[in-house]
Amino acid sequence: MESKEVKGYIENLGSGFKYEPEHDTEHDKEYINIITPFHYPDNDLIELYLRRYQGEKYIITDLGETLRYLFSHGFDILGTSKLNNLFITFLGNSNIKLQKGKLLIVVTKDGIENALFDLLNFSMTVTYFFSQQTKID
After folding, report:
1. Residues contacting residue 118 through CB under 8 Å, at least 6 positions apart
2. pTM confidence score
3. Across residues 67-84, what is the average pLDDT?
């Protein structure tokens, strides 16, 4: 995915954002890996991925890293009804979808910048919220 315009959107986000092309050989898809200056509560950098979807639409996804973080810290969002309901409530208040464990947003080129920040904000908010909770059954 070599769109100078799309890469221009990412460059406009600020100096802390970096990007690099990436190829998913398993699914034969080209991504732009967006490395953000923001962290999960355990200090890992939050990375998002952008790829062309259909025609002029793009997918921005975390490739499952938000749920991986939560699961590795004892929060099985998809397996516990209370946690699942709470997580679905978070999702319901956003334009983000959950698909096969991945958070994603489908946008046109003009919506890339806002969608990147929406997904980034969602990932940070949810992981920080759950990291401050005691075990929820």
Report:
1. 94, 95, 96, 105
2. 0.84
3. 84
Rounded to an integer, what distance in angstroms lies between the CA atom of residue 127 and that of residue 67?
9
Q: Which residues contact 75 (CB under 8 A, 6 or more apart)?
A: 83, 130, 133, 136
Q: Which of 70, 64, 72 is nearest to 97 (CA)?
A: 64
The pair of structure tokens assigned to 133 is 């909770």
| φ, ψ of residue 129 in degrees (nearest 5) | -60, -55
Query: Percentage of the chain surpassing pLDDT 70?
Result: 88
Considering all CA atoms of the chain, what is the largest pairwise distance in Å, rounded to the nearest integer?
48
Residue of 71, 70, 55, 72 whose CA lies nearest to 108: 55
